[in-house]
Design brief:
This protein is α+β, with helices and mostly antiparallel strands. Helix content is 22%, strand content 25%. It is built from 8 helices and 25 strands. The strands form 8 sheets. Strands 15, 18, 21, 22, 23, 24 and 25 form a 7-stranded mixed β-sheet that branches. It has a 4-stranded antiparallel β-sheet with strand order 1-8-6-3, with no helix packed on it. The chain has a 4-stranded antiparallel β-sheet with strand order 5-4-2-7, with no helix packed on it.
Length: 474
């Protein structure tokens, strides 16, 4: 006679995107003692890209939740254990105590690399290679005890300690843009103490090192006699009443990192143009009234701006490109994945319409409406925010005329669409009120010359001034 035993199964935080390292648990849908089935959603997590619900991949009874809602957990860490019905004679597995993170086990010499659990694709391999240990140097400053000073005694300027020598002959860990910055600043990476994850040198490390070097290289100042102050005035205390501290995580953290990386990697150029969009606004009204694009399809000026940009890209495909630093190549994309910047309760996200250039005006309107609505509901998937090639940001909905938009990392251009206002305008030789907007195009000057950027922006403006060109140019 056999006895059925129950064993514990661990469910680890999966990589819910591509290459993400952590996620925040927003809420749990189960508690210890609850029965769960294969495919049942047990919690919702927020990554740097989106909020995602996690389904459990087996049946059983919840044994333990390892982290509370609000905790940020590394990918690969156990977050829940479930007691499942085991095979006859199987030994039960003891539950582990709650931990902040689960360290990766040391790989065997001949072991085959495993793959992490992911929800998108099959996922990256977990390699067996180990990073080299890094040696760091410690700089110590010894300050002499101050001697009693007479009221008019000379004060000597302290000597700044020298900058540390290179710490090791091993090749430091740093990304290509950081290596280029180090070369431009004349910094030996071996002399820099890394603060990044896994011993990777960051841009902040280089800037801190450069500042320390500049201080150390300052010329010595001869001692001068100064009069001791009669009285020392203590600084006034700064009130912090009413201050609110908001943790930097999730979408906000990802946006900050992306914007800093883009602003300090791609040389931005922004051009502006004012355009009479009176005919476009009339065209939008006619499309709404006629229902030609579909009764439930939302028609807005943004739709015509998106179509104009797609036609301009078709005429100048070189702007739909990406800079490949590692391969030292410019990659001209075969499809236009049009990103639309969307403000959501969790922050700014940029989902994109895949292969938008191949869609009709009706198809583009449908996709645009679905994209915006999904973003507002916070249900945008990580896949919808990957692979964008060019972006539109509609600052006009906030009553803003224009701006200097920052490129979405990996893209070569972003178009800002400003508010449409009635302004005095010269039309057919007379000054009359017309509906006018301002367009701003930011582009990566490494791969987009001024001529190319200007032609694209001029084409978009021309199409919006005379929307009939969407037929003849498209």
């Amino acid at each position: 006679m056999t006895t059925e035993v129950r064993s514990l199964r661990e469910f680890k935080m999966p990589d819910v995107g591509e290459g993400l390292t952590e996620a925040e648990i927003l809420s749990w849908y189960v508690k210890p003692g609850d029965t769960v089935t294969d495919g049942q959603v047990v919690c919702e997590v927020e990554t740097a890209k989106a909020a995602v619900e996690l389904p459990i991949p087996f049946n059983g009874v919840v044994e333990q939740l390892f982290f509370p809602a609000g905790a940020t957990v590394d990918v690969g860490t156990v977050i829940i254990t479930v007691a499942v019905a085991g095979e006859a004679g199987a030994a039960p597995v003891a539950a582990a105590a709650p931990v902040a993170a689960v360290p990766a086990p040391a790989p065997a010499a001949e072991a085959e690399p495993e793959r992490r659990e992911v929800l998108v694709g099959y996922g990256p391999r977990t390699g067996t290679a180990q990073r080299r240990a890094r040696r760091t140097t410690t700089r110590t400053v010894t300050a002499a005890a101050p001697a009693p000073v007479a009221p008019v005694a000379p004060v000597a300027v302290p000597v700044v300690p020298p900058v540390a020598e290179p710490a090791s002959d091993e090749r430091p860990l740093a990304k290509p843009p950081v290596r280029k910055l180090a070369k431009d600043l004349g910094i030996d990476l071996r002399a820099v103490t890394p603060t990044g994850r896994d011993g990777v040198i960051t841009r902040e490390d280089l800037h801190a090192f450069a500042a320390a070097r500049s201080t150390a290289a300052a010329p010595a100042v001869e001692p001068v006699a100064v009069e001791a102050p009669e009285a020392v005035v203590a600084p006034l205390p700064v009130s912090t009443a009413g201050d609110v501290r908001v943790p930097i995580k999730g979408v906000r953290k990802a946006t900050a990192q992306a914007m800093v990386a883009s602003a300090f990697t791609a040389p931005h150029v922004t051009e502006f143009v004012q355009v009479d969009v009176t005919r476009t606004m009339k065209f939008v009204r006619r499309l709404k009234e006629s229902g030609e694009l579909g009764r439930d399809v939302r028609v807005s000026p943004l739709l015509l701006v998106a179509k104009a940009l797609l036609v301009a890209i078709k005429r100048h495909p070189e702007i739909n490109a990406q800079w490949d630093e590692a391969a030292q190549e410019i990659v001209v994309k075969g499809q236009v994945n049009l990103g639309i910047a969307a403000a959501t309760p969790r922050g700014l996200i940029v989902p994109n319409i895949k292969d938008a250039g191949s869609r009709t005006l009706s198809g583009l309107a449908t996709s645009l409406g679905e994209l915006v609505e999904t973003a507002r509901q916070g249900k945008t998937s990580p896949a919808d925010m990957q692979g964008g090639t060019v972006t539109i940001t509609n600052v006009g909905v906030f009553g803003v005329d224009t701006g200097t938009p920052i490129l979405n990392p990996g893209e070569a251009a972003i178009l800002a669409f400003g508010a449409v206002r009635e302004l005095p305008w010269v039309h057919k030789g007379k000054v009359v009120p017309r509906q006018v907007t301002t367009l701003a195009l930011s582009f990566d000057h490494r791969l987009v010359d001024g001529e190319l950027g200007s032609r694209v922006l001029a084409d978009v403006a021309g199409l919006l001034e005379f929307p009939k060109r969407l037929i003849t140019w498209g």
